[in-house]
Design a protein that fits this description.
Radius of gyration: 21 Å
Largest sheet: 7 strands, mixed
Strand content: 5-15%
Structural class: alpha/beta
Low-confidence stretches: none
Strand order of the largest sheet: 2-8-7-6-5-3-4
Number of helices: 13
Distance between the termini: 30 Å
Number of strands: 12
């Protein structure tokens, strides 16, 4: 099976899992315990968390709160900072942010959605026009998880703060962390990340916070994570995240170039009479979204899987709906929306796999097209 759905989840990094295994078999102590074993584990957790933070932010100005996933990190940000006036976000947000915004609307908060461009990036001028003196929170996804478009959050956050210095700026960085170069500037207050997108395990994420921003706890209990998120720490998950991130950041630029070459080779091998490219050239190299216009993407997806190729049809969190909310917001018609497929890559995917995948895509789409014409 050729796996090209890495934006949904990646295969766990075997070396990271092996290294972290000691926290299941030997160093299984509760980090809150007051004896030596607990202190030692707590110290190793602190080192891992510092590494995860320091790759994209200055630990002097920012801290990190470990969560169960990127969705929890986004929920923490929105529900704790979007409590007054209005919030501004985009039509291209992952469900983890979009559903929170809808719930805030149900609770009486005004929610304003900025339009998308055709490639899935936010219309910056429209977003800025929605911000006023009553805006409490602005949330802009860093990398669109369905098209791969990269939003310019560094520049946007500066412009947001220039218009309303009191507005909190949050970004869902789940598809960016460990994949593209990121350095948080002082105007970015909150940033959510997830382990299982870079070879870590499902069940671990983090919310990175500018220290000057007061942030209430989202989960109460024993006061773990400096009182920001109670619950006994998932030591194995956190350390696996740490070890996987060590490898990712050590080769981030090299892997970015390798994956970009693979993406372009796959696109170059696809039949242009069958597929239209929707992903922007300057988006993340890890995502290539195409449309087999006039064909049903979910039917094609199942046929591809039967032929040895796993791909997505958009966000794994929006697969219950015929048309993707995000792709619809990009302005595409039904023929394009019907045929959307998302190919998402890993540095572990080989050139041979990519070319084989393109061959399977061409043959399978052509077969479905002929069948549909009959």
């Amino acid at each position: 099976m050729i796996y090209l759905d890495n934006a949904a989840t990646t295969r766990p990094n075997e070396n990271a899992v092996r290294r972290a295994g000691i926290f299941l078999t030997e160093r299984y102590f509760n980090p809150s315990a007051l004896y030596g074993g607990g202190f030692a584990v707590n110290g190793e957790l602190a080192a891992g968390k510092k590494f995860l933070l320091s790759r994209i932010a200055d630990p002097i100005d920012y801290d990190i709160t470990i969560t169960s996933c990127g969705t929890e990190a986004d929920n923490h940000a929105l529900f704790c900072c979007g409590k007054r006036g209005n919030i501004v976000t985009t039509e291209g947000e992952h469900a983890a942010v979009f559903a929170c915004a809808q719930e805030l609307k149900n609770r009486g908060i005004e929610v304003r959605f900025a339009r998308l461009k055709e490639d899935g990036s936010v219309d910056e001028e429209h977003l800025l026009s929605l911000i006023d003196e009553k805006t409490s929170l602005v949330s802009v996804i860093h990398v669109n998880n369905e098209t791969g478009a990269i939003n310019r959050i560094a520049e946007l956050s500066k412009r947001v703060k220039a218009k309303n210095p009191r507005a909190v700026f949050h970004s869902d960085g789940v598809q960016a962390y460990g994949k593209i170069p990121v350095k948080l500037n002082k105007e970015i207050d909150l940033y959510a990340v997830s382990a299982h997108k870079i070879g870590g395990l499902k069940g671990t994420g983090a919310l990175i916070r500018k220290k000057s921003l007061p942030l209430a706890p989202y989960i109460f209990g024993g006061g773990q994570e400096n009182g920001k998120r109670s619950g006994t720490e998932n030591v194995f998950g956190i350390m696996t995240f740490y070890y996987a991130a060590e490898e990712k950041f050590a080769r981030l630029k090299e892997e970015q170039k390798e994956v970009e070459r693979l993406r372009e080779e796959v696109w170059g091998a696809l039949d242009r009479t069958l597929f239209t490219r929707l992903s922007p050239q300057d988006g993340t190299p890890y995502i290539l979204t195409v449309s087999a216009e006039g064909l049903r993407g979910e039917v094609l997806q199942r046929m591809l899987y039967d032929n040895g190729l796993a791909v997505g049809t958009g966000s794994a969190c929006s697969s219950k709906h015929r048309y993707s909310r995000v792709m619809t917001a990009c302005g595409y018609g039904e023929r394009v929306l019907d045929g959307v497929l998302r190919l998402s890559f890993s540095p572990q995917n080989t050139r041979e796999e990519g070319l084989r995948a393109a061959k399977i895509l061409n043959e399978t789409a052509n077969k479905l097209k002929e069948k549909t014409a009959d």
